[in-house]
Design the sequence.
């Protein structure tokens, strides 16, 4: 076996969960996406995405939202692709910032589901190795859509548009990476009139679930999101304060005067209903 190939295999075996977040991209503003019309009252229709989520996303008994990828079918996939194509056809610079935010969040999440469906079945999104680079894992660096004549990747949307323009750390709980360890894929589309309420709900939901924050043997353990993107939340004490502000009473009391945390890990298994222990939660109708 050639030495270079042997070394590549050795690296992959040593780091099986290598991901773009292992060396998280910084927020690097793409200036052309700052264009907006503050007084615009135009809105974008996210009803198709809302219907898709309502049909195919289920909340399992463990509190993790899972998607029934195996039940989407050709009709569902065509509807999803039509929704993405409709978003791509928009001149997003002609909308207000208020309308642009849900546009980018919904586009990111819809593209993530779409790319998983294109390669399904997979055990993890990390197996969709379509990004450029020898050791790349996952689809985040691949150009997946064209908006206003610009080819965009998931990394572009999250790290060059959402994070640097809005500078709101709750973005990390709105975008979904199709994994169990990720904040839930919401069961409704983001819309301009519900953004604030949905951001708060998504943040509280994740931080009050053990995969987001937990106390064990007197120590606070947080999702690796807070290590990957710590600068978006502040210093270590600032991160703990952020958790405390969004914690339910039981978690808040358990945190007490703790002002530091340890990495709690991240589960990259696909957020697939087919893998949940309680299949009844995935077979039942998706009621909201």
Sequence:
């Amino acid at each position: 076996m050639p030495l270079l190939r042997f070394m590549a295999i050795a690296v992959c075996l040593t780091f099986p969960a290598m991901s773009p977040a292992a060396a998280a991209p910084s927020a690097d503003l793409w200036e052309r996406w700052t264009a907006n019309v503050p007084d615009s009252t135009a809105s974008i229709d996210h009803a198709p995405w809302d219907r898709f989520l309502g049909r195919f996303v289920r909340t399992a008994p463990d509190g993790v939202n899972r998607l029934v990828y195996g039940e989407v079918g050709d009709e569902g996939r065509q509807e999803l692709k039509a929704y993405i194509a409709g978003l791509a056809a928009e001149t997003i610079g002609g909308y207000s910032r208020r309308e642009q935010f849900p546009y980018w969040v919904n586009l990111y999440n819809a593209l993530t589901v779409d790319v998983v469906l294109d390669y399904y079945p997979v055990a993890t999104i990390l197996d969709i190795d379509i990004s450029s680079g020898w050791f790349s894992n996952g689809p985040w660096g691949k150009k997946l859509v064209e908006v206003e004549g610009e080819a965009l990747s998931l990394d572009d949307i999250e790290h060059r548009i959402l994070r640097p323009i809005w500078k709101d750390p709750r973005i990390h709980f709105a975008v979904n990476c199709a994994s169990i360890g990720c904040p839930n894929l919401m069961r409704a589309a983001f819309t301009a009139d519900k953004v604030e309420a949905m951001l708060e709900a998504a943040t509280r939901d994740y931080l009050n679930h053990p995969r987001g924050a937990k106390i064990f043997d007197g120590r606070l353990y947080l999702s690796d999101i807070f290590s990957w993107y710590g600068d978006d939340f502040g210093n270590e004490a600032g991160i703990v304060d952020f958790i405390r502000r969004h914690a339910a009473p039981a978690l808040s009391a358990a945190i007490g005067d703790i002002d530091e945390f340890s990495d709690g890990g991240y589960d990259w298994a696909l957020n697939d209903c087919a893998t949940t222990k309680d299949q009844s939660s995935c077979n039942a109708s998706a009621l909201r």
Observations:
- Residues 1-21, 284-288 have pLDDT under 50 and may be disordered.
- Residues 29-277 form one domain.
